[in-house]
Amino acid sequence: MKKILLQIIVIAIVFFAVSAFQQRNLLSTDHTPAPYFALTQLNEQGRYSIKELQGQTTVVYFFAPWCSICKVSMPNLQSAMDDGDINAVAVALDYQSEQQVQDFVAELSLSMPILLGSAQTAKQYKISAFPTYYVIDESLRITARSMGYSSELGIKYRGRDE
Length: 162
Description:
Radius of gyration: 16 Å
Distance between the termini: 37 Å
Strand order of the largest sheet: 2-1-5-4-3-6-7
Strand content: 15-25%
Number of helices: 5
C-alpha cells in the first residue's frame, strides 16, 4: 500500500512540475489586466470586444481547429457553460479558413461565442500551445490559466468566482 501511495505522489509531483514548466511563459495570474481584443465573431457581423466580458467571470479559451486535444477538451468547456457554472468565449487561432473553424464548431455543437483570432492575438496572450485558456474576472483581470487538456471539473474549479 505504501508503495502505491508513493507512486501516486511521485506521479502527481511530476504532473505538476511539467504543467508549471509548460505554463511558465503565459501571462501572470496576479490580477494583471487581460490584453484588449476586438475580434470578428464566427457567423456574426461586427466585432466582439473584451469589454463585453466585463461584470462576469469568463474563461477565454484559445484553440486551433486541427488540435486533437482541443477536440476532446472543448466539450468539457461547453458542458461547464451549459451547467451555468461558467461563462466562456473561445478564440480560434492557427486556422486555414473560416470554414475550417465552422466545421470544427459544428462537429462539437459548440454554442459559446467563437472569435477569429490572429497571430497578434496569440502574441498578446502568449499562446504557444493548444488549448490554452485564461480565466478573466469581472474587472477583466487574469486570475487563472491552464494549458493542455482540462476536464470539466478542472475548468469549473479554475473558473469559479473567488
